[in-house]
Every structure is written in structure tokens, then in C-alpha cells.
Amino acid sequence: MERPARYLGQELNSVHKDPAGKLRFALSFPDTYEVGMSHLGLRILYHALNEQEGIVCERVFSPWLDMEALLRSEHLPLFTLESGAPVRSFDVLGISLPYEMLYSNVLNLLELAGIPLANDDRDDGDPIVIAGGPACFNPEPIAGFVDVFVLGEAEEAVLEICQVVGDRSSSRRDRIARIGRIPGCYLPSEVQVGTTAAGAVAHLRDGAGAAWTPVLKRVVADLDRAPFPTRQIVPSIPIVHDRAQLETHRGCMWGCRFCQAGMLYRAQRERSLSTLLAQAQEVIRHTGYEELGLASLDSVDYSRIQELVDGLNLRFAGKHVAIGLPSLRMDSFSIDLANALQRVKKTQLTLAPEAGSQRLRDVINKNLTAQQCLDTVKAALDAGWRDLKLYFMIGLPTETDADLVEMGQLIREMKRLAKGCSGRPLSLTCAVSPFVAKPHTPFQWARQCTVEELCHKIDVLKTAVPRHAATLKWRQFELAQLEGVFSRGDRRLGRVLRTAHRMGCKFEGWTECFDHGLWMKAFEAEGIDPATFVHRERDEHEAFPWEVVSTGVSRSFLWADYVRSLAGETVPGCGAGKTCAACGLKGRGMGC
Amino acid sequence: MAAVARLRLIYSKGGLARFLAHLDTCNVLQRAVRRAELPVAFSEGFSPHPRVSFGPPLPIFVEGEREICDVELVEELPVQQAVERMNRTLPSGFAVVEASVVPLKAPSITAAVRQATYRVAALDGELGVTEARVAQVLSRQEIVIEKESRGARRSVDIRPAILALTVVEAGLEAVLEASPSRTLNVFDLIREVVPGYEPAWLGRLAVVRTGLALAADEASPVAPRPARPRVP
């Protein structure tokens, strides 16, 4: 078996409790151990739950193909890592869903655990299946498989749920109904979805026939008082993000129109400098990690980032702890900061211009000029970096071949800056990903390009970006197409999902497992055309399936922002000293 | 800072930790050294690494009772204190059982190691290796097996690397060469000695490396010790 250590559960700082008399919570991430353990949200919930005396929380990940084969051939039920107990024996199964392409693994996980796939088929012997994470902001494609969705930041809501579950005097059905009254919890069984003749969503009603009130997401108001694990589990095998993590802030103030996280995590809230410095010291002491990563959507936006970096450098000077910034804005301040952190070894630096032309950067509200891009690259070259990775998107709304040609020009200009610089030549890698329109963003109305259109764009880019200037990289577009379908799909997709699962679809994020042909067969078998979810511009007043839930950002703001976008108008970021763009969050207890 | 002392840790690795590969084991120990705040020396250069070095890899599935690891220190500290600090922070399955200070200039563990002693037992009863079987194996002039490394197959005579083989109450005890010039994987021996062995047996075997012997000119040879309580 490949890497048996994935299934041992004996890692340093893992929590092992006697379950007698306690509420048992199985926390799962439906991908491999290495991916799941890299997810900060999972770590936060694991420790928040285990901090409670009356709760024992244990982890479970998707077993890799070899382990799955073993479980099936030996008729063994899926088990949790800490105690090896069957997942089905737990009171709650919590599933973390940061992206849509884990859905087939959710079904597989339920099946391996011996839990009925359909929520209607479960009884008192089954755990209550709850799901949370960004993908749940369109819960509808998996509405038939989940009992409760938790919207937004779950560390408080999950404890409230446990309180209800712990009351064993009432039935499973009653307890689920009571959970539905907890703010941020959505029960898919409570909404009546009216459909058009074609099967699309026509209207959403509640049990009494009145217009459905979308379930508003949860937000942790005071991050300093929110639980944060300093005894982070140290996996014994390398994982994707193998480092200690610190969370500086949540939310992003920039409002890029393609970015769902930017809309979901509003408003921006910070941890205080003193909390962060204290947590940094503790987490390194308890883990022995050689690297500390600053997690956030945009680390440089932390209001006291310079003091934080100086403080961390001071504390860890001579202790050989590297500080990592996962995301960098394109400005010279960011470069200075990265330079202060990587004084000796200059590894690859990643920057995200997202679009090649000024017009298109305005359409997506990137608030970035070509000159800023070039200045950033110049600063990086001066500081000694010679290896840059650039993130671009293709297939953005309104994009034409001319925008792609401009991307080529920008890259060539960057390359030209390196002329006359001493040392190694500049190596540029351009990672190109296709645009996926996400719910709850201004682009939720937009049309997504077909695979053929995207291939044409790549052909244009290949000419615009000569091979000696940069290496172009892209992944298969079919996966992004499918992600788009599930991002903006509705309950009909549950049938497709079931069929695809039955046909053997799983681990969609792994090239060796993703089988696009099989998915297309599943769509065909269910008589559903995936194109209708992605390749059409949506009408201003069209009812959206994901409006069963709300991020707090209003539909009218999103539409107005979409209209602005098509006109190439930008809005400045929010925050101190800026004009409020009135996204709808203010005054709703969302930290704004 | 330059190292002033070399601390030699003798540690055990057992229970579920036996499923950890060698490189993962190295990581676990290096991070434990950092948590224990031993004053470890770091290498110079672009990416400084803690100067911690290890003995020959222990195959996955094999427990180790007396594995060796050297830690170079920039300041001295009482040996007992180092042991206690390590044991307070090592994850489940690992324990430091002994420590000593060796000269900085002493050869590295990989250069000094000569022999490894193993104990092989069946978890569910008899291993089925008789005295006669052992005698028969030892009487052979050569034992040629097929090895595959980097895609190329080659024949190796493993007989010279079998230094001793005895039937003991628990099963089998073997002393195998483990030197810079030649090492023998214990499973290559098991395949030859245990009648009808097949890989599916793995779960039924308890394989323990009980000790490593270093060259005689070493400061502290680490010979296997007689029976003593197992570290949990």
C-alpha cells in the first residue's frame, strides 16, 4: 500500500479521547490525507471541537484507491484515524467542502462508511451529515445527500449544532429540525423549489408557500477571541502545505469580480498584532516546524504587516524558522517584504496580474496598472529573484483575442526589464487557468467559454507569447467546465452525481482519476445538458438556485457591479479612507 | 555557530510508527529536536539544515529497539536532560532509551555501522523455521537472489552477509552485515529462510531490529542487549 502513514492517526498533537459519554464528531475532508491536512479550516474546527470536554472529534479523509480497494474487498467500514472506529457509529459526520470537485468523493465516502447516500433514507442509526465550506454557497447540487449545511465561518455554529445533537431524548428528525433554527444552518428539506418546464429554478418558497428567506452566513466577529490551534497536528509524512500556520485576517477588501472568496469572506477582520505574535511563538514551540505560513487571502493587506514581519523575524532570529507569504500583491512594498523574509535563498516568486490588458483588468476590478506590474517585476529583479510565476485567467467576460495579444506584450516587456540585469537570466512561467463563473459574484450572470473557445485562446497565446519569453502552462479545461456546471447548477445535478458515482467517478482533482468521458455519459444517462449551466448569459431577473443562501452581499449590488464591469468601470477597494460601495453587508452584524 | 559536541541518541521506534518510511522518520526526529530546544548546530549555506544524522534506514514494517541518531550541538548540555526533553516531545511510537556524548571527529554512523541484529517472529503462532532449516541455509556456499534496482535486474549472493542465524524461542534471530560496502535487507533473508513465505504474510510477522553494531574503533559501540522491558 502507498504511504500507510496516511491512515495511522498517531501524529504529534492529534487528540485521543475516551469517547464514553461524549458526543462523537467525525470531521472529514473528502480528498487525500495530504490535501485535507493542509486545510486550515479543518484544523481550526478539529481543535475548537476537541477543546470541548463533552465532544470527541476525530478525522477521516478519502482513502486512496489502494486503501479503498482493501476496504471493499475485506468488507471493512470506513474508519476515523484517531480511534479506528467506524464513521457510521459517530453522532455527526462533518464534511468540509472548499470546492465543488469533491462531490463525487463525498458520495464515495458516505458509501464506504455505510451511510445511505440519500438524506431521506437515513435513520436514527446514522450520523447527522453536515457540510460546510465555500462550495456550500451553492448547496443545491448536493442537497439530496446532506442533512444540514453550515454557511460561512463555522467555529461557533458547529458547537451550537453539537448541543442540539447531544440531546438524545428527541429523534434524529426532530434534532435536524431544531438545528435548522440555528443561524447559518440551511436544511435543504425545508425549501420548496418550483421549476420551469425545462427543469430550471423558477421560484423558491418555504413550507408555508411564502417567498423563501435566504439563510444568511455566519461570521466570527472578534478573531482575537475565536479559537485558534497552536498545538497544530504535525503529520509524519509530507503534506501539501507542510508548515505551521498563522491566520492574520479574514476577508479581502479589493473586490475582484471573479473572486468568490472575496465576496464570501467579507467583511475584512483582523487578529491583533499581539495575538498573532503570541500564537506564532506557541505554534512553533508545539510543532517544531521550520516554516510559518501567514494564511489569508492577501497577507500584505494586514494593517500592521511590517510590524508583524519584523516581530516574527526578531522572535525567530537564529532559530531557523522561515516565514512564508502565500500570496503577494503586485506592488513594490510586497517585494520589499518578501525580500526581508527571504534574505538568502530566493526561490520562485508568484504574482497574479490575472489579465493581460488594462481594459480586461478593469473589467475584473483588479485595480492594477501595467506600470505597477512592471515596477513589481523590476523590484523583484533588483532584489535578486530570477524565477517568477505569473497567474493569468483566460475566458474572462468580454475577453477578445486582442486582450490575449496584449498579455503577450506585457510578458515580453517584463522579459525586457531583465536585460542588463546581472546574474542568471529571468525565467518566467505563466500559469493560465480558465475563468469559472461563481455564484454570489458579479459574474454569476456571465457566460463561460466552451473548451473549443479556450483551446483557440491558447493558440492565440502561443503566438503572442514566444517560447523564449515565457513557459505557458495550463491544465485540461474539461475539469474547469465541470466545476462551472456544479458551481451554478441546481438539484437536478444530484441525479448526475449519483450516476457518475455509480460509474466510478472519484478524485476529480487528480489527473490520473479524472475521467471526463465518464461524466459526459452520466449527464447523457440523466438527460441533462451540462452546457445550459455554463455556456449562456443569464437574464437579469433569472432565479438562481443558490439564492437559498446568502453571503450578505446584495443581488442588486452584484448586478450593478456586473453592469459596471461590462462598461469597464472599477470600484475602489473598501476599508479605511475609501468610499463604501454599499455591497449590502454594512449594519448586518458581519464585522462591517 | 560551530558544533562543540555530538550527542548520540539511541531510540526506539515501534507500534504504528513502524509504518513510517526512513525519510519521514528523519523528519519526525529533526522536528522533535527543535521542539526539545536542544542547542542543535545548523549547516551553512543557502538552506541551513539541522545537523542531525541517522543510521541505516529501517525498512517499513520493522520495529527498531536501538536505532541511532547523532545530533551536533553548539553548546553542551547534560545528557540526561537531553533524553528527558526529547521524550517529553516525541510522538507516539518513539522514545529515546539512552544517550551519550561522542567525539566530534568520530566517524559518522553510516561510516561506522557494521552489523544489524534482527528478531523475526510470527504474530499468530509458529514461524515454522526449524534448526534443520537454519543449518541447511547456513551450509550453502552461496545464496543468489534477483534484485531489481533502478529498473535493472541483477543477481546478488546474500550468503556472505548472513553473519549468524539462530532459532530462538520467539522465532528467529539474525545478525546481518550492514556496512558501507554491503547491507542485507532483512526481508531478503526472510524470503529465503521462512518456508512458503509470501508478501501477504507481512501482517503476520513481527520483525524487530534489536540493535546496530558499529566498528570497534568507535567511541560507544551499540551492541544489542539481552532481553529487557519493551518501551511502549
Overall strand count of chain B = 10
Give the spatial strand order of the biggest sheet of chain A: 2-1-3-4-5-6
Number of domains of chain B: 2
CATH class of the domain at 4-216 in chain A, named Alpha Beta
Give start-end ranges of low-pLDDT stretches of chain A.
none
Quick one: CATH superfamily of the domain at 4-216 in chain A?
Cobalamin-binding domain
Write the layout of secondary structure elements.
The complex is a heterodimer of chains A (592) and B (232).
Chain A: E1 23-29, H1 33-36, H2 40-50, E2 55-61, H3 65-74, E3 92-96, H4 103-113, E4 128-132, E5 148-150, H5 157-165, H6 172-179, E6 185-186, E7 192-195, E8 201-205, E9 215-216, E10 244-247, E11 249-250, H7 260-264, E12 269-270, H8 273-287, E13 291-295, H9 305-316, E14 322-324, H10 332-341, E15 349-354, H11 358-363, H12 370-383, E16 387-394, H13 401-417, E17 427-434, H14 451-464, E18 471-474, H15 477-487, H16 493-503, H17 516-525, H18 531-534, E19 549-550, H19 555-566
Parallel strand pairs in A: 1-2, 1-3, 3-4, 4-5, 9-19, 10-13, 13-14, 15-16, 16-17, 17-18
Antiparallel strand pairs in A: 5-6, 7-8, 11-12
Chain B: E1 5-13, H1 22-35, E2 52-54, E3 62-73, H2 79-89, E4 94-102, H3 109-112, E5 113-122, H4 131-139, E6 144-149, E7 152-157, E8 162-168, E9 171-177, H5 186-193, E10 205-214
Parallel strand pairs in B: 3-10
Antiparallel strand pairs in B: 1-3, 1-4, 2-3, 5-9, 5-10, 6-7, 8-9
Task: Tell me about this structure.
- The complex is a heterodimer of chains A (592) and B (232).
- Chain A is of the alpha/beta class.
- Chain A has a domain at 4-216: Cobalamin-binding domain (Rossmann fold).
- Helix content of chain A is 33%, strand content 14%.
- Chain A has 19 helices and 19 strands.
- A six-stranded mixed beta sheet of chain A has the order 2-1-3-4-5-6. Chain A has a four-stranded parallel beta sheet with strand order 15-16-17-18. In chain A, strands 10-13-14 form a three-stranded parallel beta sheet.
- In chain B, a hairpin with a 2-residue loop joins strand 8 (162-168) and strand 9.
- Chain B has helices at residues 22-35, 79-89, 109-112, 131-139, 186-193, and strands spanning 5-13, 52-54, 62-73, 94-102, 113-122, 144-149, 152-157, 162-168, 171-177, 205-214.
- In chain B, the strands form two sheets. In chain B, strands 1, 2, 3, 4, 5, 8, 9 and 10 form an eight-stranded mixed beta sheet that branches. Chain B has a two-stranded antiparallel ribbon with strand order 6-7.
- The radius of gyration of chain B is 19 Å and the shape is elongated.
- Chain B folds into two domains: 5-106, 2-Layer Sandwich (Alpha-Beta Plaits), CATH 3.30.70; 112-214.
- Helix content of chain B is 20%, strand content 34%.
- Chain B has 232 residues and is α+β, with helices and mostly antiparallel strands.
- The model of chain B is unreliable at 225-232 (pLDDT under 50).
- Chain B contains five helices and ten strands; from the N terminus they run E-H-E-E-H-E-H-E-H-E-E-E-E-H-E.
- The longest helix of chain B has 14 residues, at 22-35.
- Classes of the chains: A alpha/beta (592), B alpha+beta (232).
- The A-B interface holds A 4-5, 8, 10-12, 234, 236-238, 285-290, 320, 344-345 and B 15-17, 19-21, 24, 27-28, 30-35, 42, 46-48, 50, 60, 89, 91-93.
